[in-house]
Fold this protein.
Amino acid sequence: MVQPLGYLKESPSQTAGPYVHIGCTPNFTGIEGVFEKDLGSGPLYNERTRGERITIRGRVIDGSGTPLKDALVEIWQADADGLYNSPSETRGKADPDFAGWGRCPADMETGEYVFETVKPGRVPFRDGRLMAPHITFWIVARGINIGLHTRMYFADEAEANAADPVLARIEHRVRVPTLIADREGDTYTFDIHLQGENETVFFDI
Amino acid sequence: MRSPQRALISLEGTKSEITGPVFGHNMLNEFDNDLIQNYARAGESPIGQRILVHGRVLDERGRGVAGALVEFWQANAGGRYRHKKETYLAALDPNFGGVGRTVTDEDGYYWFKTIKPGPYPWPNGVNDWRPAHIHFSVFGHGFAQRLITQMYFEGDPLIWICPIVKTIPDEEAIKRLIAPLDLNATIPMDMRAYKFDIVLRGRRSTMFDNRKEGN
């Protein structure tokens, strides 16, 4: 025998369940008066935030093509200059008027989620090459046992996308478009397919 | 219908994964971590077993994760959730909302007061019952540590026949989600206590870039 390494194991994940809204967006499900507003709701920017205002909308769709009406979507992104508002950000100070995190429950009738945010700047990969602008998505719901991480890229950043070191890692090139959101006006549409022909690429990060 | 069929693509942490949002203690209201009081009418309290749930949020080296936002939600003593889509015939408790949150202190410690939730039936198999449980949502320091899980109670016979619990294939891992009764932390003549530690995944430090398996 050798000495045990002694590292603790990560607590196992469990599904968020159908009533995730009680804990994460209580006002949305009619529990009012406990929290003033639901954490992460509303626009991610205010009038002083730097950067281009955009809207992101989409649905989380199951293997039969049906949108989930009980999903919870969170996003995490850099500011317009590519800096994260986090103590772990070592490259500079992010826009103090942009926290970079948002949370949106899917609409209980349509399954649509919406974020009003700013377009992020570019962030370096570990070797210093710039990644294309992207937003990290995290999706939980009933029937999803562990939160799913993915990234949204922007269709109008074709050149940056072509050089992106993370997208380059995807061997099956036909799957790359599942991470790229189309633009119409100021709105990007990003549908997330959990299963099937157009299954979105998910990451083990 | 909701599980991806293709393998996840591995990605070593970039700034996008090792950074994450931080929520200060100043976002909290006085009773955010007291579910006995935060929805109750003046002078009243919810019905059920009064309990204190406490523990630490830890990293894989056993160090406390300070400033971690912990959110929790649960059914009432009868197993009824306060949610628009919930139809179980057990009654709502007019003094119980079922939601709370807190931020860990400098040692990673957290606590909250609540009512022990009841088991409830769910439409899976024809006679499936969830064990008593409290849902937890935790933010560490990096978005890659984001975790949602469930806490179960020591000695509950429903734990070992629950299909959601059994999505975890390893019995030892299931045990890490079962909170023991903690008599040391009880408040005599007031409430019992359960202890529940949560371990977040490691923060792979850049010192060990050459070790792809992590620290």
About this structure: Chain A is about 5% helix and 25% strand. The helical segments of chain A are 20-24, 158-162.
